[in-house]
Structures are given as structure tokens and as C-alpha cells.
Amino acid sequence: MKTFFIILLIVLTFQNNFSQQIFSPDGKLELNIKLSNQNELLYNLSRDGKSVIKDSKLGIDLVDQPDFLQGFKIDTIITSTYYDKWAPVWGEVDSILNNYNQLQVTLNQPKENRKIIVTFRLFNDGLGFRYEFPVQDNLKYFRIAEENSNFALTGNHKTFWIPGDYDSQEYTYTTSLLSEIDASKGKNFDDIIVKSLPGKDIVQTPLMMKTTDSLYINIHEAALLNYPAMYIKVDRNNFNLSTQLCPDAFGTKAYMQTPCKTPWRTVIVSDKAEDILASKMILNLNEPTKYQDVSWIKPQKFIGIWWGMHVGKDTWNYADINNVKLDEVDWNSLKPNGKHGATTENTKRYIDFAAKHGIDAVLVEGWNIGWEDWFGNWKEEVFDFVTPYPDFDVNELERYAKEKNVKLIMHHETSASATNYERRLDEAFNFMKEHGYNSVKTGYVGKIIPRGEHHDSQWMINHYTRVVEKAAKYHISVDSHESVRLTGLHRTYPNWLAAEAARGNEFNAWSKGNPPEHETILPFTRFMGGPMDYTPGIFQIKMDYYNPGNTHQVHTTLAKQLALYVTIYSPIQMAADLPENYERFPDAFSFIEQVPVDWSDTKILKAEPGDYIVIARKDKNSDNWFIGAITDEESRSFEIPLGFLDKANYEITVYQDAQDADWKNNPMAYNIEKYNVQKNDLLKLKLAPGGGTAVILKPIK
Question: In 166, 197, 415, 686, which residue has its Cα 20 to 30 A from 647's Cα atom?
Fold first, then answer.
């Protein structure tokens, strides 16, 4: 595809009373920059003449040095335009347009004889900007105390938010006005394992908002590398948002050496909620893949020895012992607890199920020694990632999985000891390759070691990148849990298939759970930066099935669990329930068997954050289309025009809530219908409270 990059204008000026503007390629968005009376850099953003961001200050606070906040003069302004199309290794579409107009301003502080460059890129769907520090005599090494990027909003917007926790994103979302945000209060705080709440006015990104005149605004970041994660500080009185970075143990935000640059700050804006979900701006602000060969990176569907632990049927640990030195234990002499999930026999059962139903892989958790004394003890070395329990035969399972044409997925829980994991990475990845594993699920439960670091601090951001880069050398793909939320880096590192970094389906098994609206908010928030391993597909909705009297449950209908495979995009999707539960509902499981994990096209048909989402996707390897529709606690009906289809006639299979279905009282009632439709037909869907519909459309030849 031909690429265009045209420099349109170069201006040399030393005048302070200046302003400069650029427009998005379609002319709808307008960006203006100028200097204030104090020679501060200001920007504002409007859409169709309507203000989105009012005059807002930009700058950087430094430690023990003068700040990059004011006293600026303009050295140069360069405007340019860029047009390109590129093909992702995997994704929601097979081609992405990257088209923007750019304004790059070089600011000089004459008093300090220093320079900083601020680059703005204006797309049809939003704005990205970042800071760059070129090589210069008066700025070589420096520490950032805080970043002062501001977003002055036009009013008291409706906001979907979670607290700004430096160590976890596993919260349910609160919907409130900006003026009502109190991040010291919220839903289900008691479920969070590690809490590091910096203040009641700090919230996380991606931050989703809706204005009173129905404009949708999403604030996040792109290409988070060698820098701490960004949070948002809310001025509840003036509706001004400002960046707050995750600190290290000493309170420093970032350690920098020129030449260097920050991540992009992103503002996606539209008058249609559907356009927010369709945006590829964050991906476009990331660099192309670093790898010449990507043939080894494969999207996949998997099952796993995992849900049984969450519902209390199985355990991760092999024996019931505590407070021991694990390297001194004679494991062969210990008596197993009788509930260990990761046995050779049980893993073979999962492999057989995967082979029978065309599932690509099997995840096995609890296979390696250390689970008896791993959690909450803040120990430097717990897991070695190469020593299996006595009842897990690595060699036999390698042979058996290969015979059945099923891959095994390794699990590396680090117990948050990142230093221990980094020391052992080569040995661990060598072990994986020797035994036929090409994917790993990493975990970081607990307080981070090095002590004082947070999950989202600069050191840990670099750790996650080091793991992904090291994994690529071994042709291993990564699914990270308890890590930082994604910022589009799966374009640069396509072996970073997914992350957790949000409150997943597992919370429904043993806590207050996720409310029915949860999955209608996540695509507008956490998923804006990249795929999540949400683990859909739970069929046994109520947990009293396993333990009478247990009141916990999944807060959806069974049909909605099917629809999540379409509305939640991920190149690595888990069929999360137990095989025996799928065998109870083979007709419903047929949808999971057929739904792909890689797509050539995606259409956002209907969407409203917190209420409903309807998405259609086309399989990358066939002409089949799939539709997923989900709702919150309200029942809803939709009429979906099928004009997006490529062919004239289709056989349609509809997996839907039964007439009397309800997420709370009758969640497992569903119907399946099959009939023929044409491209000009109207598809009518009815969703139960907390429900959903999943649809397969196959062309009739």
C-alpha cells in the first residue's frame, strides 16, 4: 500500500503572540495551539465548531531542575500530513487506515537553553500528542516529578470510571457525573487483593465520558514504553482533568535520558458511541511490528484447568502444607491433597475434550511446585518455572498433546516477584520450547518485588516489555495477567496477544461479581487499548451447583456468555467453563466451537456505554459472519439491518434467551433457531435482562 508523508509548512519564528491550527483529514476536528501570557503552551480541540477541550496547559515538572512549564519561545513549527494502510498480524479487521495531519512545535527555554518538542497528530476520530526531549548539552539525564498534561472539559460530563489504583484495575465501574467522582468509594472494593489508592480524585484510563449534548469522549494513552502508566486527576469543581503518573518507591515518576519521548496522550471523540469502539487511533499511534517473521504468532481458542479452582472443585496446590522452605521439601514423600487439578490424568481429559471439539490449546495452572506457600508472603523466590509436581508428567503430556494435535499453554505465576522471573526467563522459556509450549499466561498477584515498585510504575512497564521481547526470541506468545492495561503495543509486539488488567469473569465465582452492565462498559474503557483475556463461556451460572448455599453467580444469562465471544475481542479466547458443563449443553457449545478468534471485518452496529452493544464480525478464514448482542440489567429489543453482509442469501443460526430468561432468576434458559435470511432483511433480536444473543450467518451457495 502506498504511503504518503508530506511536509506542508515550516515556520521559523521568535514571536510569542502566535497561534497555529490544523484540521483533521475530514475537516471535522480542529486543533489550536498558542502561548499564554506566561509563555505556557496551550492547546484546544473542537469538533464541528463545538468545543471538546478548552484551552489547556501542557508541560513537565522535573526533579531538582527548572520545569518545562513556562518561559517558552517558539523555535519551529512543522505541519505535515500522512496517509497509509497497513495489515495487522491479527485483529478485528484485515486492513487499517492510518491518516492524520501533524503539527510539531519545538519550544525553546532561552533562560535554561533547553528544548522540548511537542507533537500533535489529528485523526478523523481524535487527537494524540506527546513530548520529546532531543539530545542537548543542558539536558542529558533528568527525573520527572509529574507530567502536567491538562484536559479542560466543557462541562459536568457523565463519566464511567474506576479508582486510580497503582496496583490493580480489578474494579467494577461507577457511572456518575464528574462532580460526583469519589475514588475512595465504589463498588466491590473488598474484592481487590492489592490496593494502592493515591486519592479520591484520581481515576484510571481509559476514561469514558458523555456530554449533555451527546458527544462521546475517551481519554487514554498509546505506546506506553519506558514510562509509568498515566492516571487522571479530576478537578470536580472546574471539570479540569490533569495527568498523574504512577510513582516508584521514592516518589519519582520517571528516569529519563535524552533523546527520549513520552507515550502519546489520546482523546478520541465522536457524536456516535459506535465510532468510539471502531476507532483504531491508539493502534495507529504505535510503531509497526519489530519482528520480521510473524508466521509463528497464532490466534487461538483454548480451555483450561482453571475454573475448577475458582469454584472450589480443584486446587492449584499439590499438598496441604504451609510455612515451609519449598526447596527442602521431598515432594514424592508428601501426601497429595486429593483435589490437585493439574494432574497428568486430568490434563489428558482436557486434551481429549479439546481434540474432540476443535479447540486449539489447553491451559494448565498449578502444574509447578510452589503453590503451597506463594500468596501474600512477599518472598523473593517462590516459583522456579521448571519443576513440575510429582503428579504432572511433562514428557508424557508433551507426547499426548502432540498426538492429539493440541497445544499446551504454560502458566507462570510470578507471585509479583518480577526480579525472580527475569532471572529465570531464559531457563523457563527454554523449558517451554523443549516441551512443545508456544504460549504463556503470566501472573503478578501480590505486592511487587522489587519492593516499593507498583504494577504500573516505570520499572514494571519495562519489565512487561522485557518479558514480551524475550518471549519473541523463543517464538512464544504472552497473555499477561495482573499487568498494566494495554496501550496498543500489540501492533509493535504482536506476540503480546492479550492482557487481563481489568475485572474478569473469575470474580463471579467467589465474590459479589460483575454487574450485568459490566461487559457493556469494558469495550469503551479497558478494551480501547487492546484485547483482554476475559474468560467468557460460563454455562453453569449459579455457584450453588457446586456448593449448596453458595449465593454467588455469573451476572448474565447463558446466551450472553455466548455473545461475549463477539462483543469482546481477543485473539486468545478461553472456553472457560468445565468440560463436563459443556457436555450438558452440546447445542449451545456448538457456537463456541464455531466462533473464530481472528476477523477480516468488524461492524459496530449499535452501542451505548453501560447499556448495550451489538457487533458483527466476519471470519478471516471464511465468508461467515457472527453477531453478538448484549445488554445490561434491562431487557432490550433490536432491529438489525443486514445490509452489511457480502452475499445475497444466508443460513442463520440464532442462540437467544428464552422467553422467560433472566440473569438472576432464570439465567440458563435459551433457544436456538435456524432459518434463511437475505441481505436486505431485518434481523429482530430480543434480549432478556442481563441477556444476549449470538448469531452465525453462513452464505448459501
Answer: 686
